[in-house]
UniProtKB/TrEMBL annotation:
GO terms for biological process: DNA biosynthetic process. Residues 243-320 form the Reverse transcriptase/retrotransposon-derived protein RNase H-like domain. Coiled coil: none annotated. SUPFAM superfamilies: DNA/RNA polymerases (SSF56672). This is Reverse transcriptase domain-containing protein.
């Protein structure tokens, strides 16, 4: 609390009160959050469109050099006016305080922060940002340096503070949301792959949900994932958690698939080839250019869709792949 007061993140009480939650961050430091359940009901969300991972990396096609920046303190860089600050009051054993900066948990926080970040760097070439993760790139070292200098200049002018410990300058590859981006394309982050490879059998529904969440990060590297993980998804929805041989087989098959997968590469302007397939419970597609795999995609079929004929399922896979590609 002393640090929060010193940095003008929080200040002293009002008549409002929210519950407080202390969350441990990945680096073991603590983050102060409020329980905004009731407060969020009164907030009108601005609904700023959040870019997808695919949209972000498309801005770096053909790049050979990359810089990754991290916005320090994220939401806390947004100053609240007095009227907005009052309702963020929270109670602690040391008394009541209110936020002077945007707290984590508010329904409008991510939309507002993303909008501010895009505005701050809107004139920077080969630039993308998803919340507080920033990427700048260049097809040549000179282009990269010019773009990075432009981004740093904008950060200084717009008072966007950076976390030096998390910044990566002029690298030929960078980690980004569970992937690694380089001049050769997009690859699975080895830390994610190894975590999946070494993951023990889930013992309960919560651990199974963790596994399924990890697979979402790696889905573009695993062909026919929706068919392979169908037993696991079905188990996650059942009232009673009973792990059986069919789940063991699915778990082992997925591990082997991701550990032996071919890393997709970045497409360029030119002809693309789409191959699709369908089973009783799922459809899958692989996008190819010049015999190089760009990405895998798959999804499960609901009860109605499972009644489609084989050709209807395959046509459905084509339509879904086009819709996904156009939207990204």
């Amino acid at each position: 609390m002393k640090e929060g007061l010193k940095e003008s993140i929080v200040t002293h009480p009002t008549d409002w009160v929210n519950s407080v939650a202390i969350v441990e961050k990945p680096d073991k430091s603590l983050r102060i959050c409020i329980d905004p359940h009731d407060l969020n009901k009164a907030i009108k969300r601005p609904h700023h469109l959040m870019p997808t991972f695919d949209e972000a990396i498309q801005k770096h096609e053909g790049a050979k050099f990359f810089t990754k920046l991290d916005a320090r303190h994220g939401y806390w860089s947004l100053v609240l006016d007095e009227e907005s600050s009052e309702p963020t009051t929270f109670a602690t054993p040391f008394g009541r305080f209110k936020f002077r900066r945007m707290p984590f948990g508010l329904i409008s926080a991510q939309d507002e922060f993303q909008r501010r970040m895009e505005e701050a760097f809107e004139e920077v070439p080969r630039f993308s940002v998803i919340v507080d993760d920033i990427i700048i790139s260049g097809k040549s070292e000179t282009e990269h340096d010019v773009n990075t200098r432009a981004a740093l200049t904008r950060a200084r002018k717009r008072t966007v503070k950076l976390n030096k410990a998390k910044c990566i300058l002029k690298s030929k590859s960078i980690p980004y949301f569970g992937h690694v981006i380089s001049k050769d394309g997009i690859h699975p982050d080895l830390n994610k792959v190894n975590a999946l490879k070494e993951m023990p059998q889930p013992r309960n529904r919560e651990e199974l949900q963790t596994l399924l969440g990890m697979l979402n990060y790696l889905s573009c590297y695993i062909p026919n994932l929706s068919s392979q993980n169908e037993p696991l998804r079905t188990l996650s929805k059942q009232q009673k958690f009973v792990w059986e041989e069919v789940h063991d087989n699915a778990f082992d098959t997925i591990k082997k698939s991701i550990c032996s997968t071919i890393s997709p590469f970045n497409p360029s302007v030119g002809n693309l080839e789409l191959q699709v397939d369908a089973s009783k419970s799922g459809i899958g597609a692989v996008l190819i250019q010049n015999e190089n795999i760009i990405s895998f995609s798959s999804r499960s079929l609901n009860t109605t869709e499972q009644k489609y004929s084989q050709i209807e399922k395959e046509l459905y896979a084509i339509v879904l792949e086009f819709v996904t590609s156009i939207s990204t």
